[in-house]
Write a structure and sequence with these properties.
Layout: H1 4-13, E1 22-27, H2 31-41, H3 80-83, E2 100-109, H4 112-119, H5 123-139, E3 143-149, H6 163-176, E4 180-185, H7 192-204, E5 212-216, H8 223-233, E6 238-239, H9 260-269, H10 278-292, H11 299-309
Parallel strand pairs: 1-2, 2-3, 3-4, 4-5, 5-6
């Protein structure tokens, strides 16, 4: 069975043929995870300027359990014995002409309860843990994407999440060096009025629309409405998942992200140009849903497939 480093190198060395640039996004659980990724794959190139010294990770109190996501004992981490740290692996060399880049993702949460459940630390501690990761990524010229989870509702603290706190965390990630921050309605509790209120708070904090993305789960069927609110506010980057795949293990009942097919269909109806071939996307949604043995949650996708079959 291939080890993590070999899998990573295969992915980076064999991007699919595509007419557009491909961006590979990797969730980084902790500083060691990024170090292992760099050593295993050789991604990124050192910047011309030496990176500033990075602070050590926040110490754990005695008896504290490893964090589900940020712990170095995360089951998805590339351990040194197989990551190329002790047994170096040749950096990935692409066999495809398709241009691609690599970016990393970091998560913070907008409520203390969710932060402790998801990362086993406070909001402040999670942001401190992000600093050395961002510093190392920037020293390797890697793009960094931050996420602020439960920005419009928390499974533990309820729907009334402070917009100003979301804005403060978003600003902190951007000041730290993140290239973009995706503000996420992880639970799908967001509504149009509260989405508008949150966007106003972000603008009032001096955060530019170009530095933001929006991420809506469709648990209560409000994701598309909220995306249109974001579009009208000036946001132009939205997260989505083909066939509506996804969910959240720390938010009971949370469904997947807004379906790419539904979002593209809506955007096209408003005159936006996405570059997405919605018929091909619908076919992909059907295929991946079948492969995973789960229902296709895209309404637009299913309607398009039915029309094509008639």
């Amino acid at each position: 069975m291939a080890n993590s480093a070999e899998v990573l190198n295969y992915i980076l060395g064999h991007p699919p043929e595509a007419s557009h640039h491909i961006a590979y996004n990797f969730l980084i659980p902790n500083l060691k995870g990024l170090e292992n990724m760099i050593r295993a794959s050789g991604v990124g190139s050192p910047s011309l300027e030496e990176a500033p010294p990075t602070p050590p990770p926040s110490p754990k109190s005695e008896g504290e359990e490893p964090a589900p996501i940020t712990s170095t004992e995360d089951p998805n981490e590339m351990p040194s014995s197989t990551s190329g740290v002790d047994n170096p692996v040749e950096p990935a060399k692409s066999s495809s002409s398709t241009p691609f880049s690599v970016e990393i993702s970091l998560f913070a949460a907008a409520t203390e309860a969710f932060s402790k459940a998801n990362t086993n630390c406070t909001i402040a501690e999670s942001l401190e843990r992000c600093k050395p990761i961002v510093a190392l990524a920037k020293s390797r010229n890697l793009r960094v994407r931050g996420y602020v989870s439960v920005a419009l509702g928390c499974p533990y603290e309820g729907p009334n999440v402070s917009p100003s706190r979301v804005a403060d965390i978003t600003a902190t990630l951007l000041e730290m060096g993140a290239d973009e921050v995706s503000v996420a309605d992880t639970t799908g509790m967001g509504t149009a009025p509260r989405t508008q209120e949150l966007l106003k708070a972000l603008s009032s904090a001096g955060i530019a629309n170009k530095d933001l993305a929006l991420h809506f789960h469709d648990t209560y069927g409000q994701a598309l409405v909220n995306a249109v609110v974001g579009l009208e506010h000036g946001i132009r980057t939205f997260d989505s998942s083909v066939g509506g795949l996804g969910g959240c293990p720390y938010s009971k009942g949370a469904t997947g992200n807004i379906a790419t097919e539904d979002l593209a269909y809506c955007m096209h109806s408003l005159g936006a140009r996405t570059g997405v071939d919605i018929e091909k996307m619908a076919e992909i949604g059907k295929w991946i849903s079948s492969e995973l043995g789960r229902p296709n949650d895209s309404r637009a996708g299913k309607a398009i497939l039915a029309r094509l079959a008639s």
